[in-house]
Amino acid sequence: MCLYQTSMENTVTTIATGQADTLPDKTRIKLEIIAEGDTAEAARQAVADHEATLRETLLTETSLSLEQIRATGFEVRHREDQFDPSQTGSDYRAVKDVQVDTQPGHVGDIVVIATDAGASVASVGFSITDSTRGDLEKQALANAMEKAREQSETLASVEDATVGTVLNVETREPSGMQTIVDDALEIGSDHDFQPSPISVSGEVEVTYELIQN
């Protein structure tokens, strides 16, 4: 923060950062389905059957809709193309990636149901919706404006002056911190998913009128 005083203009300019926090309201669960076969087609069909079973199980035993379950990746590899070609098993392995979008409170149940259906959990990521993000950004900037005035009043008191009206406001990219922090969790054996709050920061540079007492 800095103070400017000239014969032409008396102003005080401060830079302040505000922050707003909330718990995640959106969750992305990445599942992986693996199947093997003596031929590429056999492996492909086997993983397709496993995927169909997984989808049916999730739709039957949870409140998920079709739109919340989608395939995001697929590959078939020969054993010689894998990291450990000496491993025993069929010649071909098929891997299907499936993403489930849900709310944080449903994660534990979905993970248990998915793993019981034969899938493995690659990752669980927590984030916020665009609407929530917009609300947090507004709150962070409001908090930054409040801090800016407090800082300006502190500077003004040193000069025996009073802070007047706002003359100019510019938003800035917060330095040294991310605007949005998305929390990603590794899967634990106890399926206890407790996401940390997500933080949004906003920074402003504000110039106020400086009134001499």
From TrEMBL:
Taxonomic superkingdom: Archaea
Keywords attached to this entry: Plasmid
InterPro entries according to UniProt: 26kDa_periplasmic_antigen, SIMPL/DUF541
BP GO terms, sorted: DNA damage response
Pfam families: SIMPL (PF04402)
PANTHER family: SLR1258 PROTEIN (PTHR34387)
Protein name: DUF541 domain-containing protein
